[in-house]
Structures are given as C-alpha cells and as structure tokens.
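We treat protein structure as text, and this decision shapes the records that our systems exchange. We quote a single record here, exactly as it is kept in our systems:
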Amino acid sequence: MTEVITGETAVDQVAIGAAAAEMAPTSEVVLETHGVNVYYGSNHALHDTSLAFHKGEITALIGPSGCGKSTFLRSLNLMNREIKGCRVEGEIIYDGRNINTREENLYELRRSIGMVFQQPNPFHKTIYENIVFAPKRHGLRGKENLDALVEESLRGAALWDEVKDKLNQSAFSLSGGQQQRLCIARTLAMHPDVILFDEPCSALDPISTLAIEELMQSVVQDRAIVIVTHNMEQASRVSNRTAFFYMGDMVECGQTDQIFQRPKDRRLNDYLTGMFS
C-alpha cells in the first residue's frame, strides 16, 4: 500500500529534507583518514584520528602545543615516515587508495599533496628556478611552457607583479612574506589536490599574514587546504571547518562557526576561553 503524505506531514517532510540537504556535504572528499595512530618509539602521540578533507574547503587544526595536530598534518603526505622511530598506523585514503603503505611512491605523492612549512624555505636558486625546479624533474620541457608555468604560479600566489622584473634574482632577495608566497607558488606549480600548511604565518608580520590568508582563500576552490595554526582569529577567519586536538586526541570537529560559537566539549570551551593554551 502506498502511503500518501498530506497536510502538515508533507510540510514536515519538506522541512526535514531541506535541513538534511543543508547539513550534507556539498563538496567531494579529496583526502580522509580512518583510525590513524602515530607512535614515536613507545610514545603514542596521536590516537585513532579520523577526518575528511573536502575540495574547496579550508580545514584548520587547532589546539595547545604538543597536542598532535602537526603530527597529524605530517602524516597526511607521509612525512612522518622520515622521522626515525616513527610509526603510523591506520588508513590515509587519497585517490581511492590507502597511501599509508611502504609501496607508496613518496616522490609522486607529494606532487599531489604539497606542503608549506612554518619557516619559508626557498631553494638557493633564482626566483624562476624555484618554480620550475620540480616540474622540470617531472618532465616539463620547453621555455614557453616553463615561462607560462612560472607566471601562472606566481600569479596564483599573488606575487607576479612584485617579482616579474627580477625572476633571475636570488629567492633570498625577497622579504620573508614574499619568500613564503614564493614557496606557495612553488607548491602551486605542481597543481596539487591538497596543500598542507604548518603554521605558515607564525614568522610573518600582520600585513604578510593577511596576504597569505587571502592567498589561501583564492586558491582553495580547486583543492583542499589543511592548516595548523595557534592563531584562533586566523582559524576563524580563513577556515570552513575546524578540528580541535588535545593530548593526542581529535576531540571535536565541525563547521568553524559552530566550533567557535557553540563548542560541545568542555575542553574545547576551556581552550577557546583561555583556561589553558
């Protein structure tokens, strides 16, 4: 027998459907983890962490120092593997496969999951060579193609107008904020699906910090961005989602406005209100 929905019941069903649609993810998951645990020798530094990162969204990882957020970030492109005595368990799913295996080609993986570090780390090369170094190693040839990539990447990093007349100068002739944007341009040159930022503004002045934040928002449309930050104002400004880490646990994750305005876990509330830092 077919059930006919009428009157208030129909209205309720529409309201429920609309609410469910509003709550449902609207973008594809680019990268996700399932039950990730990280050990440094016998120290169990990160506990059973599962998160998903969506195309077109910035996810901020917040929490006090030593809580596991940078450890988790470095797990996402297997950088922890380079730390002696470090062991990562669980699944890290990218491109339909678990990349947390010894067979994963790290060189190829980091084309797709790029990373920008706390301190700017340009190569000891010209501005131009900083951009084309990795693409050339991956087979890109032809001056016209390389020139186009340099301009595209520097424009993407909002740096082209500042450096277009000095591409053959050393990258170290740039200011700290410009060097960080150059490192972002270098990452963009590989057209990654995910960019990981590990406190990218901690060494920068407020004007450079604002430039980096605007840059992240301008390039996120075609990829997922994950940022570790101790700056709560920054997390609230730039991110769509926020995850709070505490003592190795991922305690709470949600839409950024909910995390900051309506925290569910008392530890998160205490952190946001300055009970500890």
About this structure: The radius of gyration is 21 Å.
